[in-house]
Fold these 4 entries.
Entry 1:
Amino acid sequence: MATSPSLRTALAMFVLAGMCLSSLDATAKYLVVDHSLFLIVWARYVGQMLVVTPFAWQRGGHRFWRTSRLRLHLVRSGFLLLATLLFFAGLRFLPLAEGSSIMYLAPVFVALLSWPVLGERTTARSHVATAFGFIGALILLRPGSNVLHPAALLVLGAALCNALYQMLTRKLLDENPHTTLFYSGIVGAVALSLALPWVWDAHLATWREAGFLVLLGLFSGLGHFLITGAYLRAPAALLTPFMYVQLVWATTYGHVLFGQWPDRWSFVGMGIIAVSGLLLALRHRPR
């Protein structure tokens, strides 16, 4: 069956979004070694807001920011901020590919928390996929691996926060998607902007370092813009499998930029986590 032009456009946007977000992670990993974590995360969220706010305004109208569920939006946005802080902090010590793979445990945490938080009963397939996800994590965190580091706990915490972010997103499915998109980064942008005088890094005064901050914001904003555009053009169930193409980008960036290449068992663990997350993500089809 022929692929519609709208679907082809959506797939291209989704894959390009994955490249942008992997580029964001690689740039953050490069900067976080020598610069303030909070400043890097600030640039990421300000860039996101600068790109998505005009888009939300243009698509959602001048009342795009109006909502009767402000508290839920802000809590959700706070979880996303915390996930970013923990993930970037962990990337300071962990390889990019393996660290990114741990983040894909988020669907596993969603499956575990669906009953106590959302009241959703899980299926036998969900239990099997969850078990596989943890097996993949154990393989990655095996003794002697590059991921067996205390910083792995930070990335596991980031995956948990990302899961809570996803679960709150499902509680907002009746909201205008452009409103939800706008509030996704609002806590990070506002809170870190207020803290900026105390976290500013004098080393970023050079054009080169400032340029990396601009790249962070550009990759973040463009990535979220492309993801939203893709979901507006095609069903999420068709796009979700292509989310794991990001692992290819992360592995490539890790090797080219940082000289990090996963060993055989790390590839096995990454693959198991990807399959587990894919099965769970397809069951919980996001908006």
Entry 2:
Amino acid sequence: MNSQVVSFSSSNDNLVVAEKLVDDVCRHYKVDEDFYGNILIAVTEAVNNAINHGNRLDPSKSVTIEFVASDNHQLHFTVKDQGMGFDYNALPDPTDPENIDKISGRGVFLMKNLSDELRFNDSGSAVEMVFCVN
């Protein structure tokens, strides 16, 4: 399992597809339980953002997750939606006191802090997370 691609319609019910992919990858690569938690949270946050913000819960639009394992013990997950993207440099800081009580706005912060590398592509409609597992 060096790579895998899954696509599904934009419904929160399909978060289980992302969870299953992470489970399968982590089992295959014998990922430590702590790293597993980081990967699961980051990938499901990215998928949740793609479904809710990128595709605006439009079931006619899809979310794609591409997984690639590199030779240097890195697991790459790229989550793409069919939305317009967003300005990822203009996100409010969720740790700022005025944002602490807000319900949303923590997804990108979590992805950034739980992955080893985070890159946005396609004007923000694709996010790549890299996890170093050894």
Entry 3:
Amino acid sequence: MLIFSWPKYYFCSMIKKTFLLFVLFISVLPLCEAQVFFKTADLFHKPESERRSGYLNIIQYPGVDTLISRYVLANRMLAGRMEGFRIQIFRSANRTAKEESNKERAEFMDEFRDIPSYVEFEKPGYFLVRVGDFRTKVEGTKLLFVVRRKFPNAYLVPDKINFPDLNTN
């Protein structure tokens, strides 16, 4: 009668593999954390040193906390930018599009020194020149009519803009 026995080295190898998988699982576990959940009370939390008297008790529908969490996370993903509008004065995918976009930007900067301009790359191969940082369509439309005198093909596009300085008059 032939009895099948496992070799000693195979058993040790299996233990090592199991141990490595366990260590890998434990080390990757913190990366699989679900989205961060903010409570409204946490947003208005004051340290003990700043408390003078009383406490804040917020009674509200739990769905409001979910909406606040989504809002905070969406703003974090923008990374210092906000939804707004820019005027697009150039778009091309030619071989010489990069040089043309730099020429258009230089021409714009000569004509309108106070308005910021940006050269951007958009997949699959377009070079864009967009100008201005407008929070609303109305702000952008005011300048669009002025820019169209020099760049007749300019138009307003929604874009992520830098936060405009609200202290300027």
Entry 4:
Amino acid sequence: MTRHSIRLSVAFFGMALIAAPFAALADEAPDALSVEWQGSKPCEKLYEDSQIRIARCTFPPGAMHVKHSHPAYLSYELSGGKAKVDDEKGVREVDVKTGVLNESSPIVHEVTNVGDTTLQYLVVEKKYQPL
């Protein structure tokens, strides 16, 4: 084996290690913009390029964002309320505070609006490998 082919093999193996968790995540659940609830999609794509995707997600009282996945992302709560979250940590109710910015690792989850207000988020998904 030549030095060049060894370097290529090492580089390929390294890239595979980085990409593997994201491939497994994608196999578990569809992405956030693909899923529907009662015939409509709760998230609307506002912008996308090679680095990020921005979406606005709106959930009236009782609405559900069925099981879906996100790469690492930021979310900004445009309008808060109460939500039930089901993820790897279990099922729990959370208070969603208007005007709060959150950061998340890649995740598979399901979210249901269990309050009496409409929840609305801006989501910025990171398509690149965060540092």
